[in-house]
Write a structure and sequence with these properties.
- The complex is a heterodimer.
- Helices cover 0% and strands 52% of the residues of chain A.
- Chain A is an all-beta fold.
- The mean pLDDT of chain A is 91.
- By secondary structure, chain B is mainly β.
- Chain B contains no helices and eleven strands.
- Chain B has strands at residues 4-7, 10-14, 19-25, 33-38, 45-50, 56-59, 62-67, 72-77, 86-92, 103-104, 108-113.
- In chain B, strands 2, 4, 5, 9, 10 and 11 form a six-stranded mixed beta sheet that branches. In chain B, strands 1-3-8-7-6 form a five-stranded antiparallel beta sheet, with no helix packed on it.
- The radius of gyration of chain B is 14 Å and the shape is globular.
- Classes of the chains: A mainly beta, B mainly beta.
- The A-B interface holds A 2, 4, 42-45, 55-59, 90, 92, 98-101, 103-104, 106-109 and B 32, 34, 41-46, 49, 89, 91, 93-107.
Chain lengths: 115, 114
């Protein structure tokens, strides 16, 4: 158990809908990262937050947005969902937010299925 | 454009054999290269990592070899065990606080046969 929690575990929704994925980092970790993992695209970095502020941005679509709250939990909002958004979404956390050069602890993921 | 190219896509090795997974990167600004291990139904977990000023790093049965001039690095798993069966991802990380994203390889599914 990494100490990172993600909810929900599974999500089934329809095209055009909006969903919110939630992540709670390990106790004491200030940085949160979001990733998308799909069969055709592999593991893709979406966005990183450190202590409430955006620190690094990856291939995050404009239909997607994220934020980190004062209690350090983070939410990833996916809107106008398309079939191609079906994937496993991982959240990870780290202590200092120095990008990938410190150990990131991954949550169990949220499996999103868009029908 | 794939910033990090990983091969092979899948690998089958006999127990006790050596598993070798290769990655190549494009951007010379990357300065940290971790490998992650992912078991089915789980998130990736950091396995081992290397900086480009070092040509080799070893941790137990896992070794990273790094060739800066060729912009290539590889993971060697010595004495491979069935418990090593997992998907392995390499990654390339830019300097911290640059606001730049980091890149993962496409993954290698390793199966170690007893």
């Amino acid at each position: 158990d990494s100490g990172v929690t993600q909810t929900p575990k599974h999500l089934i929704t329809a095209t055009g809908q909006r969903v919110t994925l939630r992540c709670s980092p390990r106790s004491g970790d200030l940085s949160v990262y979001w990733y998308q993992q799909s069969l055709d695209q592999g593991l893709q970095f979406l966005i990183q937050y450190y202590n409430g502020e955006e620190r690094a941005k990856g291939n995050i679509l404009e239909r997607f947005s994220a934020q980190q709250f004062p209690d350090l939990h983070s939410e990833l909002n996916l809107s106008s969902l398309e079939l191609g958004d079906s994937a496993l979404y991982f959240c990870a956390s780290s202590a200092r937010g120095t990008g990938g050069r410190e150990t990131q602890y991954f949550g169990p993921g949220t499996r999103l299925l868009v029908l | 454009q794939q910033q990090v190219k990983q091969s092979p896509q899948s690998l089958i090795v006999q127990k006790g054999g050596i598993s070798i997974i290769n990655c190549a990167y494009e951007n010379t600004a990357f300065d940290y290269f971790p490998w992650y291990q992912q078991f089915p139904g789980k998130g990736p977990a950091l396995l081992i990592a290397i900086r480009p000023d070092v040509s080799e790093k070893k941790e137990g049965r896992f070794t990273i070899s790094f060739n800066k001039s060729a912009k290539q690095f590889s993971l060697h798993i010595m004495d491979s065990q069935p418990g090593d069966s997992a998907t392995y991802f390499c990654a390339a990380i830019p300097p911290s606080n640059t606001g730049n994203q980091f890149y993962f390889g496409t993954g290698t599914s390793l199966t170690v046969i007893p």
